[in-house]
Amino acid sequence: MSQQESNYIPFISNQELANPMDLLLNEEWLRKSIQAEEEVGGNIGAGLNWASGFSPLLLNPELFYRLKTLRISLNREVRLLLKDWNLGTATSIASAIAREKLLERFRLPTSTVKEHIQAVLQRDELFGEEFISNHQVLRELLGVMLTEKDWEMIASVAADSLKQQIMNQVLVERISA
Fold first, then answer.
1. Residue 157 and residue 95 share a domain
2. N or C: which terminus of the chain has fewer CB atoms within 10 Å of its end residue's CB?
3. What is the distance between the alpha carbons of residues 47 and 34, in angstroms, rounded to a whole number?
């Protein structure tokens, strides 16, 4: 279990999340929140948490910008790659799962992923535009970041989505006939 996961302390249900005003008046929730914050030394946050894997990069605005550009470029590249594979209507869901997996790797990178990302971030020639346009570099990095298990999940979700669409069409055709 990573440090990030071990610091996570669930103490409210999804139903409680639905009404933030009630939380402000809930003494038990407030007590648990204070306790949770103290247990992690005040280190709580929301959204992208790249600090666990890339804390030195975040201190340098230029490298942080490059990391952000790289993440956006990888999302774009995986979408283009899946589009090239002509998955039809399953492209959208496959892209969403791939982006999810990439985000997981950015949040908790393995040492190999971290090394490859840092090597790309050092290449000045890649960061002159809004996106990284070198498809070879991006696809090599995708090959490191997305595992075979990730690709199996992407394929499975895409296949399930397509199957569901076909079954929905079959039902519509039966009703229409």
1. yes
2. C
3. 20
Answer yes or no: is 122 within a domain.
yes
Query: Treating both helix axes as pointing N-terminal to C-terminal, what angle do 91-107 and 148-176 enclose, rounded to 10 degrees?
Result: 150
pTM: 0.66
The predicted structure's pLDDT at residue 52: 54
Does residue 50 sit within a domain? no
Give me the residues of the chain with pLDDT under 70, please. 1-24, 29-30, 40-58, 177
Determine contact, residues 138/74, Cβ cutoff 8 Å: yes
Within a domain: 44: no
- Helical segments of the chain, H only: 3-6, 14-17, 20-25, 27-39, 51-58, 61-84, 91-107, 111-121, 135-145, 148-176
Q: Is 81 exposed, middle or buried (0-12, 13-18, 19+ CB in 10 A)?
A: middle
Q: Is residue 132 part of a domain?
A: yes
